Known about the structure:
By secondary structure, the protein is mainly α. Helices cover 41% and strands 2% of the residues.
Amino acid sequence: MRQISRNPEIQREFEAMVASGTSERLAEMFALQAPPMSKTEREFLEGHANGNQFEKTPAYDNALKQIATEQGINTTGMIYLDQLARYPGDHEGWVRDRGDVKRTLEGRPGWRSRGMVDHEGEAQPPQEIEIAEDLVQEEVAEILTTVPDPHLVDTVDLSNKVREHRKPKKKPSGS
């Protein structure tokens, strides 16, 4: 049975309701005396109402706000979501509401979200990544040490064969 509370009385009440046939979700709401979270701006911004989400890390707060100011962003009434930022200080990490999150996600192919903001990003084909040239040349040099006449080997052709051999194999469809 999953734990919903460290309070033994609440936990016992939850377990008793589930044992008597109440669904876990409903038993949790009754035991905690709390309605389920809904997807409203109030719940989305919960915990940020005082306007200082970084009160325990003011230096980080100041750095983010400074970067935003330099980018022409007024952060008044906004919160910063690290999960949405592509890099520290990314101006797209600053949002006012769920709509801002949705708009940002819509502009990022492949990004998905479930929870307060649901968004199914378009599936992106995997990017082919080339093997680093130094690794190719290292393997070519290693192979050449095993060849009786290495000066007769076409190293350009061998390098291409190493690249092709080291390329990740694509999985068949449906895997």
